[in-house]
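Q&A log
Question type: sequence-to-structure
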Amino acid sequence: MGIFDNVLNESELLFRASIALEYDYMPKLVKFREDERQYIAACIKPLFNKQSGRNLLLYGPPGIGKTVAVRHVLAEVVEHTEEIIPIYINCWKKNTTYKILLEICDLIGYRLPYNKNTHDLFKIVKDKLNKYSVVFCFDEVDKLEDYDILYMLLEDLYKTSIILITNYKTWLTQLDERIRSRLTPDTLEFRKYNNYEIKEILKYRLSYAFQPNIWSAKALDKVFQTTLEVGDIRSGLYLLKETGNYAQDFGAKEITEEHVDRAIEKLKEFTVKDTDELETDNQFILDIIKENSGKKTGELFALYEKGSGQRGYKSFQRTIKKLDDGNFVSTEKITGSGGNYTIIKYNDRAKTLSDF
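Response status: OK
Response body:
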């Protein structure tokens, strides 16, 4: 038997459109987010009458449709008018004012920005965009290293609506008063999906991604139950895709529990990276957090210094962000009478996953 004998022919492929399982895929219907979409649209609507729209802060935990809902609304803006320019920026990828201005220059068609400083770039952006109405979306805005871009846009652009997406409602309290007083955003919470909604969303994506009637009932139920336990739709989409890949790679014509089990093993790597890959000092910081889970950032930094850590506080904070992004730790920003601070907790989700 040859090594390619079990390759499925085109008529036997399990996938119909695997792109429907990508998290940033834009489905035709954003299920269970119609009220939120209507609210976002209401903030933008004044731009259609050449008036400034309302600014908006969207917040809620990861994986609950914040980005998809906004991008859906922005796509509808493009369909309705050429007089409003939508600009979407992911601040995890573009986390400084200069990088954002470079990205905006690219989006508006200015192709030679690299010999310009920040002031020059903003003049180009301002001169171009003040001829139109503009809706900005800054996704993962809490990843910004500086907030000058917000001040510049609020101060010098005329007809705008600024949408900010973050996991943290309390992020707004970190802003300089000059920016906060100009921004004065509405706030809109995205609640977590309930169990019924998670299942329906996964079924909806699955109906586009796979050929009909190829999932066994037990296999599909195992994907649902694992996703509900993890609590993140992105994990469910990942499981659907990886399970399909395993089944198709081995020439299966039906997707079974065995294929799901193999995908769950890979999900552990997806959600909780191998800590051995961390550089030594990052591992040292992670060990401190593990032993002192639930303490404030400042308290953890004091323990790090006491243990002969060499990084400054800002560098220590950036490492915490990386650990958070990698799902090694979770952070919670607290606002109270005693001031603002962040609680860091060690993430032991791997124990939850290995129960399956």
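Response note: The chain is about 45% helix and 15% strand.
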